[in-house]
Amino acid sequence: MTRSSPILALAAAAGGLVLALAASAAPQGDVAARAYAVEVTVPGHTPAGSAQPTAPGNAVVSTGAFAYPADGSVVGAGSTTASVSTAGASRSAADAAAGVTALSLFGGEIAAATVSSEAHALANAASTSGEPGLSGIEGLTVLGRAVPPEPNTRVQLGWGTLTVLAERTDAGHGPSSGVDETVTALDLVLTSPHGGLPAGSEIRIGYAEAWARAADAAARPDSIPTITVARSAAGKAASRPPAITPALGEHGYVFPVYSSVTVGDTFGADRPDVSGGWHHGDDVFAPLGTPVLAVAHGVVFSVGWERAGGWRLWLRDDVGNEYYYAHLSAYSPAAVNGAIVNAGDVLGFVGDTGDAEGTPSHLHFEIHPVGLLGRGYDGAVDPTSYLSRWKRLKYLRHEAVDGSIPRVLPAHAPKAGAVLLQRTDISSASGLDPASLARALSGTSRSRPGT
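Given the sequence above, the corresponding structure tokens read:
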């Protein structure tokens, strides 16, 4: 019995959605970025795989299950995401990220629970730098054996070579030369025919590339595609905030920040340094470390670092509306690409990361209704009226609090902070020792050594 060749077959689940592709102004300086979750290259054929967003601008692509070919015998994934963003002013910055959940290659011969790759590049008049961010792999197994995801590890197979967390930083001499940061989470090259693919085939999982150069340098390399953006006669990006607040189609929404907080209604305010030139959300001011909550039942995606948003994530509800959370200080264990969460689940904690550094800690929150996703990132609507109606939680479920120990972040670490979740007045409790109360009131109470 022979199996048909998968070379010309490709299937991805219906509902794969391009979530944001901003028609933003060309950045000052020179920046570019691209990312993709899956790419399969077969000699003599056009590469196939998941969507590949590119920048300048901001773009986020998320899909459901992915399969290549239709039966997933070569590549199968529970979900894929890819995002890019660029910015330019006194410095040029580019960011790219890609993620895959429930990965399986060749029927499980290579498998991983989650795959994530990030590339960040920064250039200004004085220096350039590139870094791989939170790139990593969880639960990686090769031919039934666990493989530690150490950067640039090579695993020799009888029919190919697998490179794990391939990282490369190409920087010229001086900021005018720019810096190119590239991360490929898994790169498999077949040295012999295998699984219906010929020798020389290559499978890349989790590719992210970011390039930045100071404003006075020559043209960017041809290897990174660019997007040409139409501009108005005044020279500004042709974009303005939508003046509508459509119904989101669900019930039981929860306010995105725990307890009593202040909402800054700044939607649509002039922001020449961001995509579109205007503020796409509201700022919810709260003490550092205040829990950030899922506003609805849905799927988490695009978790990771972004130059402007800092530690950020997206949430897609069951109807298809999208919600953007930015400037977090840390994540909860629920903040994983592809995770399904309920309204009120803790996703992270309020901070001031990204371009909010030095400002009062707050959550930048955006609403992108499903009917406006065709406008890309500029499909955001004013969150103020929605936030005023959503339920504010006074108490968090015990399991939500207990399970929300922040994940340790390897860089851009948040400042120390604490938030009072609840309190109990013990003054009226029974069973207190009168003598201990007397000692406390008299000021003669002493602590034991070492306590």
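Confidence is low (pLDDT under 50) at residues 1-29, 217-238, 408-416, 445-451. Try to locate this feature in the token string yourself.
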